[in-house]
Design brief:
about 325 residues, globular, NAD(P)-bd_dom, Rossmann fold, alpha/beta
Amino acid sequence: MKKILITGGAGFIGYHLAKHLLKEYGDGVELVLVDNLQRGRIDDDFKKLLEDKRVTFLNLDLTDLASYEKLGNGYDNVYHLAAINGTKLFYEMPQEVLRINALSLIYMLEWFRKNNANGKFCFTSSNETYASALFAFGQLPIPTPEKVPFVIDDPYNARWSYASTKLVGELFVIHYAKAYNFRALLVRPHNFYGPRAGYHGHVIPDFSERIAARVDPFPIFGADETRTFCYVSDAVRAMQMLMDSPKTDGQPIETVHIGDFHEITMKGLAEKLFEVTGWKPKALDIKTAPPGSVKRRLADVSKLQAFTGWKPEVSLEDGLKRTYDWYLANPEKK
């Protein structure tokens, strides 16, 4: 029996990862999902997941040391996803982003190395760790490999509160794994999207809500900025494949990008959504991107492919349609 812990289990990635692992491992898995429900939520989708007898849910605050007494031990895999995320929150509560993300990781690593010596630890970092290099130096390799300098170009800009926790978080995991000789993995997500990704602060949910509301003129912030978008089922499959691969068991631990191949502008993304939803505004309202917003992102995912043979299975058009349909059926409750 494979025993797996997912922190942030009621969140966007945690929920989809849990669904994937149940399908992948069948009756040979026991899942423990931890969340404090600050961002994650007990909605109908999550309630259905919890009906599975293989799943246990613990409502815990991972910044409280007492919580770790309730986690147990002997996990084969720990996926540490819990963090305060969402660009809007980076600006609104940077002090809490810093406190919660850093403290929960430190406590998790201390608990893990004492109670799960034979397990494997996955830390979800972010492309935000190096995102401001392009702004600071005017150059960044595109596609961007894992070995690029970490940069926080302006510590006074609250935007980089989240990035700094991921930057320092990578250092913690690298050196804890080395010092205490446990297996670990760093993954850097690149714009995962899909159903249940929240309602504010992420571009595809925001676009979906505006389309559903028929907002016209249609606002687009940073229309010429580019991203790649990886549908969440492809993303969590990549995470599981990396954790199961013996190629990510050694020291020093591996850092691996997870993302799609196809770069698209924010204006192009909006136009794709107009196509798949069958509605188009009469006019666009092009607005300046927020301060600190990154001009261009395109990950090099060759390491992911070399380790696992992973390829995305869901096209952008199909993924956008699935996401829009979910948001149409599940509007935000006011």
